[in-house]
Amino acid sequence: MSELPDGGLAAWPHVFVPGEPGAPVLLTLHGTGGTETEITALATPLDPRASVLSPRGRVREGGAARWFRRMGEGVFDVDDVIVRAEELAAFITAAREEYALADAPLTAVGFSNGANIALATALLHPVVLTRVVAFSGMYPFGDRDPIDDLTGVELLLLNGVGDPMAPAASVDVLERTATEHGATVTRIGRPGGHGIDGSEVQAAQEWVAR
Fold first, then answer.
1. Confidence at residue 19, expressed as pLDDT on a 0 to 100 scale
2. Residue numbers annotated as active site
3. Hey, is 65 helix, strand or coil?
4. Residue 125 has pLDDT above 80, yes or no
5. What percent of the chain has pLDDT over 70?
6. Residue 92: CB atoms within 10 Å
7. What's the whole-model pTM score?
8. Ramachandran region of residue 182, left (φ > 0), alpha (ψ -120 to 50) or beta?
9. Which of 37, 40, 44 is nearest to 13 (CA)?
10. Cα–chain-centroid distance for residue 89?
11. Which of 80, 134, 89, 131 is nearest to 112 (CA)?
């Protein structure tokens, strides 16, 4: 497992908002150009009781925060995806200890680039992260399959069927590959493109509550 940056957890900008005693944890992960603060608003409609853990992506692209490097739109630096997923897994492990969350169920909720790093982390580190709500996410490993056994992993994939930034063909690969490795995948499509709509928030709320 990768180590956290020098200075430990305190050196990684993030927000932690404690929830009700015994409540689950929502790990909220912003999209490109987003922030660790604005994405926390997504947690309240999903589970207002939950603790919220929200880190900032550590890669910069033209001044915008991201989770991993890319060569172009939809063309990811897969080696960097793998490294950054390992770092996020280390962050989750350290945050659980720091905030006394060891026994709390945790679900990652990501949008776009945040969905992709959540998916990569669950697919590569299922001991650390087993549940992901992915809004406008896609398969994060290009033409590679670095995945092992995913028994116990649950993914909710919420996509616009006409999304050019997270094409349906890539979501097909994600659904098929994760399922082949043992994950339980729920996929919901809607008309339209990149983004989050109310029907998806409602579906995510119901799925998180299961």
1. 97
2. 112, 163, 194
3. strand
4. yes
5. 99
6. 20
7. 0.96
8. left
9. 37
10. 11
11. 134
